[in-house]
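Please fill in the sequence for the structure shown.

STRUCTURE ENCODING:
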């Protein structure tokens, strides 16, 4: 696969690990088999799915992306398979699901490991029969959809724990692609940083083009990057905004930001002290906020923190606001 294609897909890097990833993408794109993409949060699983679609025979068809953890179990089926009028309260018309919307193209199911067992069974049936049955309907509708699924969970382990169906795993993992974490390809940090700085100049910065000196790049390369490429992007954007008039980002600038993030990580590893004058409610509120702000600093994304906590993002927002009120009230 040519490097220009990867660049257009937003996949940056020339390390051996990324060259191997490019070969896997090329292999997957030349078939219509289901693909399971694995990797830690922030490694770019959706970018890989988009690259597979754009290079596949279904590239002229739609690409529909759906996060399985972003919706409740009760709504998941109607979202994926659609529903017929009268299927439930409020269903005043027929509605197509995402499988129908993706007909002739690709459906990317992100965080498939978050699906409930009952939903997994219905997804398995669709993959086997190549047909969907809308909620409240009796007739099956054939669909021609290539499914790419992704997860940051260890699905074989989830199978052993009884949380993921073995038959669904084998149906999804006909082809597998693993995205290496950023810490295993530190040689790509320079090209990633330059790409993000150039990108940031188009929508975050006015004035001089920002650049990072070699010592700054070296400081980034020494960091462990638990949030992977997504976290690097957020750090680079922050550095680009805060850079001085000369536009050069130094190792001191990088260290200041990374030290702040490390303090959050250290605070998480240190037991939160329970003071004698604390009520249990105040202690729990402070703990909730501490965990939230830590993961928000690491991931830079409220929705990602909600996924880590296994909460809907709106539910997490309500809980954070409640914790703040508890601390303000004394």
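FILLED IN BY: designer on duty
SEQUENCE:
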């Amino acid at each position: 696969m040519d490097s220009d294609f990867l660049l257009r897909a937003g996949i940056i890097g020339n390390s051996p690990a990324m060259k191997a990833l490019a070969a896997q993408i090329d292999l997957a794109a030349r078939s219509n088999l289901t693909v399971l993409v694995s990797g830690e949060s922030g490694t770019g699983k959706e970018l890989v799915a988009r690259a597979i679609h754009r290079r596949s025979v279904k590239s002229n068809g739609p690409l529909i992306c759906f996060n399985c953890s972003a919706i409740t179990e009760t709504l998941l089926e109607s979202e994926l398979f659609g529903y017929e009028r009268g299927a439930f309260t409020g269903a005043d018309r027929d509605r197509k699901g995402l499988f129908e919307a993706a007909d002739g193209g690709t459906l990317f199911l992100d965080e498939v490991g978050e699906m409930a067992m009952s939903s997994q069974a219905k997804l398995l049936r669709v993959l086997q029969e190549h047909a969907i049955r809308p909620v409240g309907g009796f007739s099956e509708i054939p669909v021609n959809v290539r499914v790419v699924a992704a997860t940051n969970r260890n699905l074989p382990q989830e199978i052993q724990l009884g949380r993921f169906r073995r038959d669904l795993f084998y149906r999804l993992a006909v082809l597998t692609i693993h995205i290496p974490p950023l810490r295993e390809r530190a040689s790509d940090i320079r090209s990633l940083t330059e790409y993000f700085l150039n990108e940031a100049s188009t929508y975050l910065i006015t004035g001089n083009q920002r650049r990072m000196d070699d010592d700054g790049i070296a400081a980034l390369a020494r960091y462990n990057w638990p949030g992977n490429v997504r976290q690097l992007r957020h750090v680079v954007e922050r550095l680009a905004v805060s850079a001085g008039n000369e536009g050069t980002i130094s190792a001191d600038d990088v260290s200041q930001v990374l030290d702040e993030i490390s303090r959050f990580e250290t605070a998480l590893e240190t037991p939160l002290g329970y003071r004698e004058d604390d009520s249990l409610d105040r202690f729990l509120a402070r703990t909730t906020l501490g965990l939230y702000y830590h993961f928000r600093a690491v991931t830079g994304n409220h929705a990602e923190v909600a996924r880590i906590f296994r909460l809907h993002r709106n539910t997490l927002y309500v809980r954070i606001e409640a914790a703040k009120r508890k601390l303000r009230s004394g």
